[in-house]
Amino acid sequence: MVSISDHKGKQIMLSDSEDSEDDDLSPSPHRKIIRALVVHHDDHIGKVHEVTLNRLGVETRSVKTSQEAIKIICIEEVYDLILLGRYLPVIDGVQMTKMLRDMEYPTTIVGVTRFLTEVQREEFFSAGLDGCIDNEAPLTDKTLACIVESIPRRQTWKKRNFYSTIYKSFHRPSVPFGPGSTATSRDISKKD
Description:
- By secondary structure, the chain is an alpha/beta fold.
- It is built from seven helices and seven strands; from the N terminus they run E-E-E-H-E-H-E-H-E-H-E-H-H-H.
- The chain has helices at 43-55, 66-75, 93-102, 118-126, 141-149, 160-170, 185-191; strands at 2-5, 11-14, 35-39, 59-63, 81-85, 108-113, 131-134.
- The strands form two sheets. The chain has a five-stranded parallel β-sheet with strand order 4-3-5-6-7, with helices on both faces.
């Protein structure tokens, strides 16, 4: 049995198959194709989760920041699972979870973090988190297998076109602005 916490801090037990070997992480031929996005600032943890999910037959993508994740989410297909670190640069896990729920993004979001106080845990869950696993980073193979098995059937994101259009209208790669750029707001306004 593997446990994760729900929004009230209650431990939810996920059963692991008694008839499967611990080391056998091969994908089940009867399982649906699952897509996962791993968002974690720690390269090692992100890579471990990505490799394990891939061994489970999950199509996985890993990014280090919430900004990268939002870009991918707005442009690509819907992800069934998002493993999300609590402490991320610029937009933290709580803010990203709230953004995704405000966008009505249909996914299972599991927080992967260490050492949360009750107040921090409640803040994370009140943003819309589905589950939280702390003090286990990176997640064990068994924990990830149980999470993958518990993911509900994929839903369509009804607001996908709306948010994709908004994102694309703000994202202009031809405008050289940002870190390392020599452009100023004055330079950009001259182009208009």
